[in-house]
Write a structure and sequence with these properties.
By secondary structure, the chain is mostly helical. The chain is built from seven helices and two strands. Helix 1 packs across helix 2 and helix 2 crosses helix 3.
Length: 138
């Protein structure tokens, strides 16, 4: 089974941001039509992006969505965190994880140490790419 780092939800979020990065206010219906995103996904993603302060959503007859953050200052890591998609290379990377092997053996785990290095590298790489750069193809 293949597990994707950039999920369909993250892809749809990038598409939403692509439309909003053109400026102005756009309705959710316009976004779904332009970016070929199923409506139910779009609304879920818009709520998450709004909660994270990346976009602003105005309701009502004159409503719509617009960017609320500078995409040059937001990274791919920030987007994935907003969508609750930050991936861990192993369960032992989770904060507060209680490793039964380390508790039983009473020493550091070399596997954990190496995986922690990989996790830091992955997170750092995701933080290195701004959403603006991704959207513009820089």
């Amino acid at each position: 089974m293949i597990s994707l780092l950039i999920t369909r939800e993250a892809d749809y979020a990038l598409r939403i941001l692509r439309t909003l990065s053109e400026g102005g206010q756009v309705t959710a219906a316009e976004i779904t039509q332009r970016e070929l995103i199923p409506r139910q996904f779009a609304y879920k993603i818009l709520r998450k992006l709004s909660r994270a302060g990346i976009i602003a959503v105005n309701r009502g007859a004159e409503g719509g969505c617009r960017l609320a953050a500078d995409l040059r200052e937001k990274s791919l890591f920030d987007l994935m965190a907003a969508l609750d998609l930050v991936e861990l290379v192993n369960a032992c990377m989770a904060p507060g994880y209680q490793c039964s092997w380390r508790q039983s053996c009473g020493r550091d785990c070399k596997i954990h140490s190496r995986l922690a290095e990989i996790q830091r590298s992955l997170d750092q790489e995701l933080r290195r790419h701004s959403l603006a750069a991704i959207l513009s193809g820089e």
